[in-house]
Specification:
The chain has 297 residues and is of the alpha/beta class. The chain has one domain: Peptidase S8/S53 domain (Rossmann fold, 3-Layer(aba) Sandwich). Helix content is 27%, strand content 16%. The protein has a seven-stranded parallel beta sheet with strand order 2-3-1-4-5-6-9, sandwiched between helices. The two termini are 31 Å apart.
Length: 297
Amino acid sequence: MNHAKLQIHGLNTNGLDGRGIGVAVLDTGCFPHEDLDHRIAAFCDIVQKRPAPYDDNGHGTHVCGIIGGTGRSEEGLYCGIAPGCHLIPVKVLDRRGNGYSSDVLAGLRWIRENRVRLNIRIVNISVGSFCRRNMSENSALVRGVNAAWDDGLVVVVAAGNMGPKSGTITTPGISRKVITVGCSDDHKEVNVMGNRMIDYSGRGPTNACICKPDIVAPGASIISCANQSGKYTGKSGTSMATPLVSGAIALLLEKYPEMNNRDVKLHLRDRALDIGLPKNQQGWGLLDVERLLADVV
């Protein structure tokens, strides 16, 4: 994952590591990899109701490692963005990476109910649906993420891998409230779920004519934790770009804990780097963590 960080910046975080910030991850679960260093603060399994952390797919572990892995198993080589944060994985997808909207909504409710106890500030959702009945802002998934946002949580959602046509942002990334993340490097051909893809990052506008995504980050061939002890693997897609942004926000909230979710969104907008792509492909621009963390003047 150093590979990804170098594409964004030199990543001088001035000692910030996300300490004290809780990041909930709605995904396939999380394997207790050494790089997560006992920082899985809680685990909720909506799918099978098992009490201990596990990941029978690997996607969620990979996402968690991008957010907060220490890289310890490879002497720091594959360090996540915020290796001091604590993680709250919520399993809403099965071993094939599939799931039901009702399980995602149940996971969101659990996060909202436990946000104070676990100091959850950020919700990472590298999950999306491209079903016609879910494409409305009145859909249950959009209402669910909006309710989490209204509770004060910073909700960060993948734009999906249905591009390059316009109107291909997946739900709940179509929500006008949440921070929707696309890939900055989808011009590179990658393997996503066994399919060779290029120019796949979801493009706006939404059906309600909202410009999306909000921001982009690297998502091609990101190396992070596997769901096996001491192992790493590469994955690609907006699912990988999204936790880069969530990790950066954890650093920002460590530095400025008084920021609310609206402050965070505006700060991301103001510090993004315009890379010259259409607005409905890049949004505000590329995540630049050093600019994001620079002192507010």
